[in-house]
Design goal:
alpha/beta; Rossmann fold; 6-stranded mixed beta sheet; 3-stranded antiparallel beta sheet; binds inosinic acid; binds magnesium ion
């Protein structure tokens, strides 16, 4: 993939993302007021969204990280989700909120939520910045969602293209140059 020969098109600006992250943080703070909130952030893609979201959460929150893989360097889910790094111990008493950058097939989120349920938490819900519902392969509706987007490969704000561009502060679409 040679990004030099492609067209970058901004899909979501920095300002749009920040405004939405603030709203989502406020909504989560309100919903989890009487609860014992544990955010589980899925690396690597959600590290930037998680950092912005949790700073908009105004109630006590514990933060853990998990690393999963399925994509490698391609643009399609392999369907085999591997847990590379897990949340340790039992989650009794916690209300878990799994945070990811995007749900595409939904396989990663479904697998992670089912896995975390075996650790005995009170509840397990999910929060994603972006959703591509057209590509869903499993029954999954995000509990908290930033933006529904079309079936296009998106990059930036944590999302990678090859190993790069996670640091771009907005979300963009890469398309083929037709000239
Ligand atoms: P799913 O298991 O197919 O839902 O895919 C989830 C994971 O695939 C996300 O956490 C991302 O890491 C990656 N992914 C899905 N769509 C995109 C995309 O458009 N750009 C970059 N990464 C993506
Ligand atoms: Mg990911």
């Amino acid at each position: 993939m040679d990004i030099e020969k492609k067209v970058w098109e901004v899909l979501l600006s920095e300002e749009e993302i920040q405004t939405r992250a603030k709203q989502m943080g406020e909504e989560i703070s309100n919903d989890y007021k009487e609860k014992k909130l544990l955010v589980v952030s899925l690396l690597k893609g959600s590290f930037i969204f998680t950092a912005d979201l949790v700073r908009r959460i105004s109630i006590p929150v514990k933060i853990e990280f998990m690393t999963t893989s399925s994509y490698g360097h391609g643009q399609e889910s392999s369907g085999n989700i591997n847990i590379i790094s897990d949340v340790k111990g039992d989650l009794t008493g916690y209300d878990v909120l799994v945070v990811d950058d995007i749900t595409d097939s939904g396989l990663t989120m479904k697998y992670v939520m089912e896995h975390l349920k075996t650790k005995n938490p009170t509840t397990v819900k999910c929060c994603v910045l972006l959703d591509k519902p057209d590509r869903r392969q499993v029954d999954l509706v995000p509990d908290y969602l930033g933006f529904t987007i079309p079936d296009k490969f998106v990059v930036g704000y944590g999302l990678n293209y090859g190993d790069y561009y996670r640091n771009v502060p907005y979300v963009f679409v890469v398309t083929e140059q037709d000239r």
